[in-house]
Specification:
8 helices; 2 strands
Length: 168
Amino acid sequence: MAQDITALAAELVDMAAADHRLAAGANSDDPAEQLAWRRLTARHGDRLREIMDEYGWPTAELVGEEAARAAWLVAQHADRQLDVQRRALQLMQQAVSAGSAGPRELAFLRDRTLVNEGRKQVYGTQIAGVKDGAPVPWPCEEPERLDELRAEVGIEPFDEYVARFSSA
């Protein structure tokens, strides 16, 4: 079993590394890069579904911190597989409740899933685009409480968060 977990952790870390290598393809003007990104995220989403079916949410206790973060990244980017995102959200919520996963990552996944469902996000983590040089979030449920809600889960205030996108 320990060998299986070690292999699983290595596989998740490798998936995140591949994700980082091809991430530029997500917003590329090159159709080949876009297709490569979609194929990669679909393959990873399929594999994460299998992992969740067998192990539940891959927590840091199970696979280590780096591999747990990699699993979260794969779920984040499974945009065309809402079933995978919803299942990851459910399992990760249980892990957060048990103290086995972080509320910050859960908040990002919750927002990503809500936006992919065409609903308003909670924490303002998902950016729709840029208007007059400033990043604009997808619509939020309670924009007047955004920074308060973000603080509750350990996310910096919205203005600080988007400043990183503006200066890039």
